Write a sequence for this structure.
């Protein structure tokens, strides 16, 4: 089986190993690194469940090859929490009941983080457009839109007061700019 | 404040697990030395298996075992809780394209899949029947020519396959003299409506991991009803139920599609024959080929008096059950039990058939037959309103049963105020709705629809609560958490009853090895039935605490009172639960175990346990040029008696309504010959965020009229059941034509708009 050397970071941790060329990023994260927070569903890049950020850019880990993260920084749902503190987007999803079964949630969280890095003050319509590639079968979406609005508001308030949320927002923006 | 935790939107107790990726689903389970199995699926719809050549696969890299039906000697290699007609692996013949024929077990999933692709199966084709009319035709080939063992006793005699035919189950029921009543009617309105073949698309595909530990079987899966799966597995392996453990931790969506046994037998036989833990994870196509929902052709003829009062209804139902019975017979039975809608029908005749066809097996889907019959039933009411010149709300007001009135003879009288619910929908549509479309040139249609379904299923629930020596508590229930919020609601009930902070209560669920028996998690039952079992377990724990404190104090239990959160001795002294436990056992240790059971007695003696109400309104715009329908306004009413967690109730209602909008506007599995042509999420389109209605009102009616805790009753299916009918009627008002099938895709709507007028029709 052909393999390639991959060096990069996943959630800030250096990764350096030989990876079979056919391995998807989702398989690499879930089976090789034990990061099972990233889920897989449609395997066709249309449901958004497997979304992770590669250099700040959202990708479908179900079809993105693991060898292509060579030299890149990967962020998964496990990397959102810092020192036991939830990311404001995670907190907003809990507060707004923005999930039920939770299977699509990691993908929505990553896509929302990517959106807020690009656009700190999205309108409801902008949220709907950006997240239209993520499917949720449980909620009917309304609470997810609300959660992103809430998170955006808190991140902006945090940025204004220079708190930890501001750091998160800044880092997310930087990660996005790097991509 | 402790003790004040019901009736408010307590954040979900599974929230942190689910936003951090820590929640463990069936697809995440892993054991040391775990192998992976890939499924070899039938390439024929109906054929004799002449031979299986797996030599190449067996020699493939990493391959540990290839399993076919021939390897299952000594087992009872079939399952099915109503009728055990479903072979673990196709035996002798295949009955649908995509049926599992063999399993390839290898060190990695990729190795298993590579090898599975090399398995050669030789078939000798048999004539196939792909639709109910083909299957019912004279001389049609039979899918099942042997009697199968019956399963579920509660279904028992109601299961009536027609031997020598492809009828998997038949229902002939009703009351009164329908023919006489129809003859005397001022108007007889006939409606035929086709409900599409749907896929629930739980985003987590079917997955199970099995291992054998000391002669006992352990299976981790995403099953809604782990105890039902346990019983199927015990029968397959001829084991006592005590030696089969089925665990469902978190379920990535169910909506009925994870009811009953699916891939667990595949994982279990593979683990047995490969000699190590085996994981089976299907893809979306494999999941669709495992279970889909029943499409139905439903004919409703209703006789009305001049004033719009229903005199009689005659219903004919034909459902496509696919190759195996699974829960199909019960889906038909439920459909038949819901044909009267929420209306007073003096005479009713229902004839229903669910038919074996050479297609993927069908089973439960959110609503259980109600969405299928409500589509035709409610369209029929709207057509009658038009024919008789009566307002659609008025014809419903005239016929809706009143609180306490019997809907089905001998069953629980209706435990809801349907009239008040209807007014909530009508007012919400009127107060916020505009009769003009949002976009110029669009056609506006507004409609509402109602349903009442016998919910809760058969009442068998048990629960335990352990009050620990530190004053916290562990609640155990065999119910499962599939997103509906049961873990949160059960936490709230226990915290209320024990006077504890929710954070001090932990609910563990869904493990046949450790949690008490729960028959099913479906039919919107958990809050009502399991909730009552938890309520009773807490009361039992309080009684035991009273007895313990009395013994410790040397007084009579009657002199002691135990309330939520505290015990009070004869002298008025207050004791924390922790004090009572430690004082009784000594050594600062011990615990109290309270048990609660629910069965068909007391408040649950009369079935159904409760009626689930569906009451929705829809306002939509149709673009006459493209046929695209856009939902402008959605109204749902959750008639739940008491909302233990209002945010969870609204979540259930909006989720169910949205799923219903999918089946109404977009979703349909399509067969072209023997093969499904759209078994993927690109071609099988489900609602997306941009499809959200512009305005959404999720209303909750709380009248304390449920049999569950604090007057609660269930939610989960109600808002889905009538939504297809509401959309169809709204499209009819927008286009001036009555649709006869869902989904109302742009093409179908465009054809309604542009179909040539009938002769003499100037409309």
């Amino acid at each position: 089986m052909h393999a390639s050397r991959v060096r990069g970071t996943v959630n800030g941790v250096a990764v350096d190993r030989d990876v079979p060329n056919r391995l998807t990023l989702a398989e690499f994260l879930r089976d090789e690194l034990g990061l099972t927070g990233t889920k897989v569903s449609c395997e066709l890049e249309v449901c958004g469940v497997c979304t992770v950020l590669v250099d700040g850019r959202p990708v479908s880990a179900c079809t993105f090859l693991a060898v292509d993260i060579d030299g890149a920084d990967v962020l998964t749902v496990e990397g959102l929490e810092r020192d036991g503190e939830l990311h404001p987007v995670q907190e907003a999803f809990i507060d707004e009941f923005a999930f039920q079964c939770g299977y699509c949630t990691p993908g929505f969280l990553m896509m929302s983080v990517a959106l807020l890095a690009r656009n700190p003050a999205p309108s409801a319509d902008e949220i709907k457009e950006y997240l239209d590639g993520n499917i949720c079968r449980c909620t009917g979406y309304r609470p997810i839109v609300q959660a992103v609005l809430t998170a955006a508001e808190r991140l902006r308030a945090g940025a204004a007061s220079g708190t930890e949320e501001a750091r998160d927002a800044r880092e997310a923006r930087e990660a996005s700019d790097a991509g | 404040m402790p003790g004040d935790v019901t009736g408010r939107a307590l954040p979900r107790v599974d929230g942190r697990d689910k936003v951090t990726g820590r929640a463990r689903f069936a697809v995440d389970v892993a054991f040391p030395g775990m192998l992976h199995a890939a499924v070899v699926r039938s390439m024929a719809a109906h054929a004799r298996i002449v031979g299986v050549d797996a030599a190449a696969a067996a020699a493939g890299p990493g391959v540990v075992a290839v399993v076919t039906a021939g390897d299952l000697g000594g087992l009872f290699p079939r399952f099915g809780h109503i009728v055990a007609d479903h072979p673990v692996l196709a035996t002798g013949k295949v009955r649908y394209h995509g049926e599992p024929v063999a399993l390839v077990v290898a060190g990695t999933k990729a190795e298993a899949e590579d090898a599975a692709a090399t398995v050669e199966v030789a078939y000798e084709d048999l004539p196939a029947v792909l639709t109910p009319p083909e299957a019912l035709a004279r001389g049609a080939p039979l899918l099942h020519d042997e009697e199968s063992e019956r399963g579920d006793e509660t279904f028992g005699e109601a299961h009536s396959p027609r031997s020598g035919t492809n009828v998997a189950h038949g229902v002939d029921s009703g009351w009164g003299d329908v023919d006489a009543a129809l003859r005397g009617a001022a108007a007889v309105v006939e409606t035929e409506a086709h409900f599409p073949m749907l896929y629930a698309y739980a985003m987590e595909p079917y997955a199970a991991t099995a291992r054998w530990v000391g002669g006992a079987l352990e299976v981790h899966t995403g099953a809604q009803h782990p105890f039902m799966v346990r019983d199927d597995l015990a029968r397959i392996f001829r084991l006592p139920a005590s030696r089969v453990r089925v665990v469902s931790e978190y379920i990535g969506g169910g909506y009925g599609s994870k009811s009953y046994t699916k891939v667990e037998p595949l994982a279990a036989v593979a683990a047995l024959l490969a000699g190590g833990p085996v994981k089976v994870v299907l893809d979306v196509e494999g999941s669709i080929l495992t279970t889909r929902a029943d499409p139905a052709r439903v004919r409703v003829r209703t006789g009305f008096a001049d004033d719009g009062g229903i005199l009689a209804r005659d219903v004919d139902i034909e459902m496509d059950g696919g190759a195996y019975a699974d829960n199909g017979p019960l889906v038909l039975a439920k459909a038949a039990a819901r044909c009267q809608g929420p209306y007073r029908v003096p005479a009713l005749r229902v004839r229903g058939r669910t038919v074996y066809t050479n297609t993927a097996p069908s089973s439960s889907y959110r609503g259980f037959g109600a969405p299928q019959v409500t589509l035709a039933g409610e369209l029929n009411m709207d057509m009658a309103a038009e024919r008789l010149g009566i307002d659609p709300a008025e014809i419903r007001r005239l016929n809706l049963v009143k609180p306490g009135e019997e809907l089905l003879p001998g069953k629980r009288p209706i435990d809801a105020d349907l009239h008040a619910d209807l007014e909530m929908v009508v007012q919400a549509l009127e107060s916020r709705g505009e009769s003009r479309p949002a976009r110029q040139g669009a056609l506006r249609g507004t409609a509402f629809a109602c349903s009442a379904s016998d919910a809760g299923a058969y009442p068998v629930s048990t629960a335990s609560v352990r009050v620990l020596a530190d004053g916290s508590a562990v609640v155990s229930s065999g119910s499962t958490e599939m997103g509906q919020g049961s873990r949160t609601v059960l936490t709230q009930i226990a915290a209320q009853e024990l006077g504890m902070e929710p954070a001090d209560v932990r609910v563990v669920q869904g493990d046949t090895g450790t949690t008490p028996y729960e028959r099913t998690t479906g039919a919107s039952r958990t809050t009502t039935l399991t909730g009552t079992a938890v309520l009773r377990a807490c009361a039992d724990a309080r009684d035991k605490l009273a007895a313990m404190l009395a013994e410790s104090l040397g007084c009579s239990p009657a002199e002691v009172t135990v309330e939520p959160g505290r015990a009070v001795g004869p002298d008025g002294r207050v004791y924390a639960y922790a004090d009572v436990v430690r004082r009784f056992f000594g050594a600062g240790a011990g615990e109290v175990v309270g048990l609660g059971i629910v069965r068909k007695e007391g408040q649950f003696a009369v079935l159904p346990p409760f009626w689930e109400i569906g009451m929705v309104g829809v306002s939509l715009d149709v673009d006459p040029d493209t046929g695209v329908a856009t939902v402008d306004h959605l109204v749902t009413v959750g008639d739940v008696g008491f909302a233990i967690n209002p945010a969870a109730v609204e979540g259930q209602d909006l989720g169910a309504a949205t799923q219903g909008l999918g089946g109404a506007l977009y979703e349909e599995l399509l067969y072209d010959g023997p093969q499904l042509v759209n078994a993927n999420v690109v071609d099988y389109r489900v609602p997306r965020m941009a499809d959200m209605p512009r305005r959404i009102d999720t209303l909750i009616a709380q009248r304390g009229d449920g049999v569950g805790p604090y007057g609660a009753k269930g939610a989960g299916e109600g808002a889905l059941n009538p939504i297809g009918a509401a959309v169809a009627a709204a499209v009819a008002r927008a286009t001036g034509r009555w649709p006869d099938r869902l989904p109302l895709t742009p093409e179908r709507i465009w054809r309604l708009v542009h179909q040539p007028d009938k002769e003499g029709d100037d409309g």
The longest helix of chain A spans residues 142-161. Chain A touches chain B through 55 residues (CB under 8 Å). Residues 88-178 of chain A form a domain with the DNA polymerase; domain 1 fold (CATH 1.10.150.120).
